[in-house]
Design goal:
291 residues, alpha/beta, Rossmann fold, Alpha-Beta Plaits, 9-stranded mixed sheet, two-stranded antiparallel ribbon, 11 helices, 13 strands, 36% helix, elongated, iron, 4Fe4S_Fe_S_CS, iron-sulfur
């Protein structure tokens, strides 16, 4: 079994569109959406959820208004300014600022504060037309997204072993944050999607540095290469100088958007189009180690 994680240094490079296209070409694979903070692979793969599991993303304080004496101790002590005075004149916790540190619970002289586990987030095991998919849903500002990525990756690999799947294909998050780190560790290869812009190359360089620190094999695709031919050449020189194999270049096309509106990958939507044929060649290189 080979695990391939598709990443980008920034959002908007077309990473998920390319992941969906490769998913439609892969046979005997399990898919995992590692972009748990802003998951969107499901929009194309249309998963049929078979299992739903809660995810404990952290703790939140709750102040019982019936027991609170309004002494102000908790509000004064909270370094995150997560406790405010509500319209009734009593302290209340802002769930988006509370870090669940339990200090307020320990300091409350009457025991009016309790810490509750936050189980608002979920992860799923689903069937898709291409195979099994593991994915998740997190609310805005929720914690421990990196731990959630690790958890769903482990589940995807477990299911791949059970099903004797040849590949696990991860749609990773953009950037170099915790979810990206959790997507890189232990994977067999990273496929980097770069757009030929100054910001695209700048952010790709940061991601390359991160991937190299984990000593994971790295390959690249230049997407929308024809929007700036001169800068595409700059990206190619960078890849050559850093010994990163370039497995393919994909031109800009409104067909990507059109296919998504029809809830299909581009390869499904226009299978004989030159871009689809190009993507088939890219997948053949990756899947057969011709790189």
């Amino acid at each position: 079994m080979k695990e391939i994680t598709i990443l980008s240094g920034k959002g908007g490079t077309g990473k998920t569109s390319i992941t969906a296209a490769l998913a439609s070409l892969a046979t005997n694979a399990v898919f995992c959406d590692n972009d748990v903070d802003a998951a969107d692979l499901h929009l194309i793969l249309k998963p049929d959820i078979k299992e739903t599991h809660p995810f404990d993303s952290g703790s939140l304080a709750f102040i019982n208004p019936e027991e609170c004496t309004n002494c102000g101790t908790c509000q004064e002590a909270c370094r995150f300014e997560a406790i405010f005075t509500n319209e009734a004149g009593f302290p209340e916790v802002n769930p988006y600022q509370c870090e669940g540190c339990r200090l307020c619970e320990r300091l409350c002289p009457v025991g009016a504060i309790q810490i509750n586990q936050n189980l608002n987030n979920q992860w799923f095991v689903s069937n898709t037309r291409f195979g099994t998919m593991v994915h998740a849903k997190m609310g805005p500002g929720e914690e421990n997204s990196g731990r959630l990525v690790t958890q769903i990756r482990e589940k995807a690999k477990e299911m791949a072993r059970e099903n004797k799947a040849q590949f696990v294909i991860n749609d990773g998050p953009p950037g170099i944050g915790c979810t990206a780190i959790s997507s890189i560790t232990g994977t067999n290869a990273v496929l980097l999607v770069i757009e030929p812009t100054i910001s695209g190359l700048h952010d790709a360089k940061r991601l390359v540095e991160l991937v190299n620190s984990f000593q994971v094999p790295l390959y690249a695709i230049i997407n929308k290469h024809d929007i700036n031919s001169e800068f595409t050449a700059t990206v190619e020189r960078y890849l050559g100088d850093t010994n990163i194999p370039l497995v393919g270049k994909i031109p800009f096309s409104e067909l990507f958007v059109e296919s998504m509106l029809h809830e299909k990958s581009l390869v499904e939507y226009v299978p004989d189009h030159p871009i689809s044929l190009n993507l088939k060649t890219i997948w053949e290189k990756i899947s057969t180690n011709q790189i």
